[in-house]
Amino acid sequence: MENLNQDQADLLNQLVEINNDRIEGYEKAITLLPTENNYGLQGIFQKYRDQSVQFKNELSPLVIREGDLPTQDTRTSGKLFRTWMEIKSAVAPYTIKAILESCERGEDEFKKVYKDVIQKTQGIPMHTLSIIQSQADLQKQAHDHIKELRDNIDRE
Fold first, then answer.
1. Is the distance from CB of 65 to CB of 11 less than 8 angstroms?
2. Closest Cα partner for 153 from 46, 41, 44?
3. Rounded to whole angstroms, how far apart are CA atoms 68 and 16?
4. What is the pLDDT of residue 84?
5. Phi/psi at 128 (nearest 5 deg)?
6. What is the pLDDT of residues 91-147, one digit of tens each?
7. Does the domain formed by 2-155 have CATH 1.20.1260.10?
């Protein structure tokens, strides 16, 4: 039984970790936005950052219930990507489109992690699975919104 609890805690911590990445990613994106003419993206990015804070707040008690502590870490790939964003922005200013493309890549990774976890949820209580699925659905809406914004920038 202990291994099952640890497996569930590990799966839940993967979700906490990708939310940590998403929070840091949107915080980085906000710093790269121009102060003027940013199409209201700062508010949108803050909304999605706050969404991941909420997701973490929902997941953390579930991790604790399984006998573990919620991770404070981010994924190595997320750290590398944010470092690359910093280097790239130091060389040339980020365009709105490039920022949105970066955010969309982050949303793609988020979606992939949630999909992988959902596929491995055998034995997870229905209440927990419902929370995970609800978060995945909300994130898909965010992904589609970011993609739509990116596509609209192309048209302007």
1. no
2. 41
3. 12
4. 54
5. -65, -45
6. 556 789 888 988 998 899 999 999 999 999 888 899 999 999 999 999 999 999 999
7. yes
86 vs 24: CA distance, rounded Å: 13
Cα angle for residues 75, 55, 35 (degrees, 5° grid): 75
Task: Please state whether the predicted TM-score (pTM) of the whole model is above 0.90.
Answer: no
Place of tokens 């995970």: 132
Q: Are 92 and 32 in contact (CB under 8 A)?
A: no
* Spatial separation of the C-alpha atoms in residues 101 and 72, rounded to whole Å: 26
Over the stretch 120-129, which tens digit does the pLDDT of each residue have? 988 889 999 9
3-state secondary structure of 40: coil
Structure tokens at 3: 């291994």
Q: Compute the distance between CA of residue 12 and CA of residue 129 in angstroms, rounded to an integer.
A: 10
Give the 3-state secondary structure of residue 49: helix
Q: Where is 121: in which H helix or E strand?
A: none
pLDDT at 117: 95
Q: For residue range 10-65, what is the model confidence (pLDDT) as tens digits?
A: 999 999 999 999 998 899 899 989 888 888 999 999 999 999 999 999 999 999 99
80, containing H or E segment? helix 76-91
